[in-house]
């Protein structure tokens, strides 16, 4: 579904990604882990072109999205993204956060958008919050709204950029539970995370990045019990 | 101090008839200034350098010269620039509108830059086009934050509108001056004009506070 070929990203002289290649199949759940500064977030943000790659190609289905002539806005409609700091629209209610893009971009009628939004809010357990403003919600609730907002566009892929890193510990589980049930629906998911337990349990494959390189790529059982590279061993020793 | 309002009392309604003139100049100039100010601020934050230059040059001209000079250039210069003498009202709308656009564009630019960068990314990630993102996501948040500065600009505009006296528009200021000339008493009518301006500014201040409170309901 997504194919990444020799992806490179430089910020001036700083090489953040030094040529990463991989493929992601439909319905696959990928955990992207690695030390901070390894390029995980940059890698994820290249996939919906929030960062413009310096070199290399990314295919989304049969489209090369890194080419200039590709309408990236159309691609983004199909690629949902969830941020570490939620980025809900603070001047809109929860319901409006969920209906805005479907109405604006997909031209859904208000009734359709509202119906769908209520359905999604039920799924993330926040049906009673639809008329609240984001500032009234806890971190965990905000992130669940953010997930619902991304799902409201009916994306084929969901990108998660450290979705639980800004949360108080007691709120991590409610967000991970929503993500887990999403994974069970067959959604293709790319998750940058520090939650090793979650990665082990939910991911089909683990990508371990270090210093801009894809150092290791394997099934979670194998990666966590028997890492091949020294760098992955060192990393796991520190975090587990 | 001996104040004598008796002599000018018959002329007070005449001075007050200047209120609509003042309000008209302020209202039209505020609308022109606000819309043009938004457009200029968007040019200023554009990644296309020449657009930044155009908007910055515009601002430097209107901030770098006196407002009264701009008004006179537009009014007295119109026959040479446009080939026709424009009306005093039109000159006032233009001068005040163009001038306050320069100030408002700076205020809005600051407001846009103060909106969290994540808002832009969230909108882009949802496939929302640039124009909708600006109009529905960024500007409402920016304007909420800069509302006090905008009210301030509107207050300045109200007071500075007294400058239209110079091109013969019958606003509050000019009428009070005329009454002074006719009665040989300048202190009282001008004091009265001052009171009118003060009340108008107070009304604006209260209105600004009401709007601000309404916009803060999402906090």
From TrEMBL, chain B:
<feature type="transmembrane region" description="Helical">
    <location>
        <begin position="82"/>
        <end position="102"/>
    </location>
</feature>
<dbReference type="GO" id="GO:0006865">
    <property type="term" value="P:amino acid transport"/>
</dbReference>
<keyword id="KW-1133">Transmembrane helix</keyword>
<dbReference type="GO" id="GO:0043190">
    <property type="term" value="C:ATP-binding cassette (ABC) transporter complex"/>
</dbReference>
<feature type="domain" description="ABC transmembrane type-1">
    <location>
        <begin position="19"/>
        <end position="208"/>
    </location>
</feature>
<keyword id="KW-1003">Cell membrane</keyword>
<dbReference type="InterPro" id="IPR000515">
    <property type="entry name" value="MetI-like"/>
</dbReference>
<feature type="transmembrane region" description="Helical">
    <location>
        <begin position="123"/>
        <end position="143"/>
    </location>
</feature>
<dbReference type="InterPro" id="IPR043429">
    <property type="entry name" value="ArtM/GltK/GlnP/TcyL/YhdX-like"/>
</dbReference>
<keyword id="KW-0472">Membrane</keyword>
<feature type="transmembrane region" description="Helical">
    <location>
        <begin position="55"/>
        <end position="76"/>
    </location>
</feature>
<keyword id="KW-0812">Transmembrane</keyword>
<keyword id="KW-0029">Amino-acid transport</keyword>
<protein>
    <submittedName>
        <fullName>Amino acid ABC transporter permease</fullName>
    </submittedName>
</protein>
<keyword id="KW-0813">Transport</keyword>
<dbReference type="Pfam" id="PF00528">
    <property type="entry name" value="BPD_transp_1"/>
</dbReference>
<dbReference type="InterPro" id="IPR010065">
    <property type="entry name" value="AA_ABC_transptr_permease_3TM"/>
</dbReference>
<feature type="transmembrane region" description="Helical">
    <location>
        <begin position="22"/>
        <end position="43"/>
    </location>
</feature>
<dbReference type="InterPro" id="IPR035906">
    <property type="entry name" value="MetI-like_sf"/>
</dbReference>
<feature type="transmembrane region" description="Helical">
    <location>
        <begin position="190"/>
        <end position="211"/>
    </location>
</feature>
<comment type="similarity">
    <text>Belongs to the binding-protein-dependent transport system permease family. HisMQ subfamily.</text>
</comment>
<dbReference type="GO" id="GO:0022857">
    <property type="term" value="F:transmembrane transporter activity"/>
</dbReference>
